Amino acid sequence: MKDFIQESVFFGVFISLCTYEIGLLLKKKVNFPLFNPLLISIAATIVFLVGFDIDYATYEEGAKYLSYFLTPSTVCLAIPLHQQFEKLKKNWVAILSGILAGCLTSAICVFLFAVVFSYEHKEYVSLLPKSITTAIGMGVSEELNGYVTISVAVIVVTGILGNVIAEMIYKIFHITEPIAKGVALGTSAHAMGTAKALEIGEIEGAMSGLSIAVSGVITVVLAPFFATLI
Question: Membrane spanning segments where (predicted)?
Answer without folding.
Answer: 6-26, 38-59, 65-81, 93-119, 147-166, 206-227
